[in-house]
Amino acid sequence: MNETLFGIHGAALELRSQRMGLLTSNIANAATPGYKARDIDFSAALKARLAGAGQDQAVSAATRYRVPVMPSLDGNTVEMATEQTAFAENAVGYSATLSFLRGRIETVTRAIKGE
Questions:
Q1: Helix, strand or coil, per DSSP, at residue 55
Q2: Quick one: which of 34, 56, 37 has its CA closest to 45?
Q3: How far apart are CA 47 and CA 115, in angstroms?
Q4: Can you tell me the distance from the alpha carbon of 18 to that of 104, in angstroms, rounded to the nearest whole number?
Q5: Alpha carbons 100 and 4: distance in angstroms, whole number
Q6: In degrees rounded to 5, what are phi and psi of residue 40?
Q7: 3-class SS at 42?
Q8: Fewer beta carbons within 10 Å, N or C terminal of the chain?
Q9: Which pLDDT tens digit goes with each residue over 65-94?
């Protein structure tokens, strides 16, 4: 019922949430020597999810290590500007997806109430 009721937005919200956690982990480990920054290719993960892959399977298949523009001497590949930009872009997408879902829920609620 979730997939038919919410369509692509339910899967997108789950993926954006997992991506937010990964980006947060990157930012938290910015000073950890040897830490390798990762990101989720959102479009690839969503495509895999819609093709029938499980949530964890889609995320692990679409997770990539970042290639730094300016590598650090300690082997850490986190670049704060890149991570902050990706985090902000993902946050906007998360909010937009929530708005679509909220609208869908309100429509269903009005239909149930007979309005």
A1: helix
A2: 56
A3: 36
A4: 22
A5: 14
A6: -100, 130
A7: helix
A8: N
A9: 999 998 899 999 999 999 999 999 999 999
